[in-house]
Specification:
Elements (H helix, E strand, L loop, with lengths): L2 E7 L4 E7 L9 E5 L2 E8 L5 H4 L1 H6 L8 E6 L19 E4 L23 H14 L1 H4 L24 H11 L10 H14 L11 H6 L7
Antiparallel strand pairs: 1-2, 3-4, 4-5, 5-6
Helix pairs in contact: 3-6, 5-6
Length: about 220
């Protein structure tokens, strides 16, 4: 289902509020508490390999939105006794894209600003070709995510946003999943140029080198 009841009073059989996710629920909701506040988290995103198998199931799910989203809902008060009315959340839910990369904490306030990476239009074209041959089957032709997470960048960086360097390391060392490490460092850098351009960055005159990509602390955002 696409509408997840995030506060369900089972004792009286009533749904107190709902939220429409962008795709199907693919994980069991969990509830936890931090500093006395209760949260409910659930993973959405069609995912899986259905579209790769062909046949009626693949046809039926061809236009289903993909990509992983972790929805986290903060409840307004501590858990209520059985049978009590559950309040709706006090604020809009927060969504965090699921990542296939190691996540790091946000840089300290006094950290130097990340250097803006440059890449060429020719490198983007080369990266698009390599991505199409090695990555699109899992991550989608439009970075939407199919059987692997979306590669669409966030608009605003937070503590879960990887750096370009972290993402480059994953591409260079672990991708594609069918043949990890088969990409050359230049191919991995070209893929990063393509990802940056597809997420809104403008090409420049210089080529993105593997060394610059690996060392970059620029956040992967639009």
């Amino acid at each position: 289902m696409k509408s997840m009841p995030s506060s369900l009073a089972r004792a009286i059989g009533a749904v107190r509020w709902t939220f429409r996710t962008e795709s199907g629920i693919i994980g069991v909701p969990i509830s936890y508490r931090v500093d006395g506040k209760q949260y409910i988290a659930v993973l959405a995103g069609w995912g899986g390999g259905v579209s790769m198998f062909g046949g009626p199931a693949a046809d039926a799910t061809a236009n289903v939105p993909r990509g992983g989203q972790l929805y986290v809902f903060a409840l307004a008060a501590p858990p209520l006794a059985t049978g009590s009315a559950a309040p709706p959340p006090t604020a809009a839910p927060t969504t965090v894209p699921a990542r296939a990369v190691a996540l790091t904490n946000a840089p300290p306030a006094d950290a130097p600003a990340a250097a803006h990476l440059e890449f060429s239009a020719a490198q983007v074209s080369d990266g698009a070709r390599i991505y199409g041959a090695s990555c699109a089957v899992c991550h989608g032709a439009h970075l939407e995510g199919i059987s692997a997470p979306t590669l669409r960048a966030d608009d605003v960086a937070d503590a879960t946003t990887p750096t370009v360097g972290e993402l480059y390391q994953v591409v260079a060392r672990s991708m594609p999943k069918t043949n990890p490490g088969s990409l050359t460092s230049q191919q991995a850098a070209a893929i990063m140029a393509y990802l940056l351009a597809t997420n809104g960055a403008a090409p420049g005159a210089s080529t993105l080198t593997p060394a610059d990509a690996a060392a970059s602390n620029q956040r992967y955002v639009r």
